[in-house]
Amino acid sequence: MSVGEIIKFYRQKEGLTQEELGRGICSVTHVSKIERGQTPYAAEIISLFSERLQIDIEKENQRFENLENQLHYWHKVIIMQRMKEVEEIQKELETNPIIGSSSYAAFYKLLQARYYLLRQDFNMTYAILMRVQNDYPELRPYEKNLLRHVWGIYYLLDYRNSKKECYQKAINILKEIDRTEYGNLEYYYHLAAAYQWMNSYVLAYSYAEKALRYYKEVDNFLGALMAESIMLISIGSNVEHDFKEVEAAYRRLIHNSELLNKPDKKTMLLNNLGYEYFRRKDYQNAKRTFKESLSLVKKPSVLYLQRWYNYLKCCLEGKLMRKPELLKHAREGLAMAKVQEATVYMIVFKLLILQIEENYEQYYQYIEKEALPYFESSKSEMLKKRFGKELFHYYMKVEQYEKAVQISNQLIEAIQSE
Known about the structure:
Layout lengths: L2 H11 L4 H5 L5 H8 L7 H11 L3 H23 L3 H12 L10 H14 L3 H14 L5 H17 L5 H12 L4 H4 L4 H11 L3 H17 L3 H16 L6 H17 L3 H17 L3 H12 L7 H16 L5 H18 L2 H14 L3 H18 L3 H17 L3 H16 L2
Helix pairs in contact: 5-6, 5-7, 7-8, 7-9, 8-9, 9-10, 9-12, 10-12, 12-13, 12-14, 13-14, 14-15, 14-16, 15-16, 16-17, 17-18, 18-19, 18-20, 19-20, 20-21, 21-22, 22-23
């Protein structure tokens, strides 16, 4: 943005015509040429314009010249999730009246979208991204790739549509990024996360490893921790891998999350480690680890419900809690799910209660009549497969082979669609 563009911006802001601004100073034609950068101008004229507009032109020009560096720094702290700085810069940028009319307007809006992703305001993120696509059809190469990256992150976190569909969208758009024009190889991490959720563990590990190398190069310790956590999940999916190595790696990352003062990452890692213990039927360690993870989560919340369910399921499977106490806690979970209007957890806690009560006939009826139809409609593929398998084995046990075949076909369709 030139000095002339700054003058034009504030003239229009004050509601002045070119003739009104130039009155007693210079001609309308000269004002027009100055604003368009088509003519040399005397410093005295700019000084008189500034006085009439009540602005400090040197200060405004300096602020614009610093804008690009400020935006790139904001991007950096957003990536590193240094929230105090993120919020400070956000507030400072909001006070800059020129930014929306400058050549950095699209860049700023894209960074706003990333900011709102951090704040988990997905509606605002979507609105900004759509606005950028509509208002700026000719983005510069860096901005075009940033747009792809932010869309990719959005699809990873989008909760309103089929998860599987969103993960595939994320992969498709992230793979369109041109790394030579973009340079921010953080997108490897988001590709790894998408592949992990699609259960493509080899590709998840590969991209997470690339992300880890990049994060180490730029001293992004939080990013490195997150990349390693995906690598661990990928390794842990192989039950033949030496679990002692996996366990030690988790403990190291948990310690690092404490050093970085990131309790949200610590609770995630503890939950993942608890799941690895649970899969290996080490219920005592699973219970202890799930409980520690649970202690770091805000109550009530959907995340708390997820951690609470894991903890109680472990106690049930491992026979680590008396039935009356277990039943009481499961009912508390169901009540919390109703308050949160979390239908998935209302269903799984209802199923957990039926299991604890050993009311198996009603348990399997509930899976058939309520749980599976909801999991199908809500595209909850993991839960659909998990409880579908349980129902299949039940039908085989009670010799209801026709129903077993129906469930088997549904499970095969779900697997083939992956």
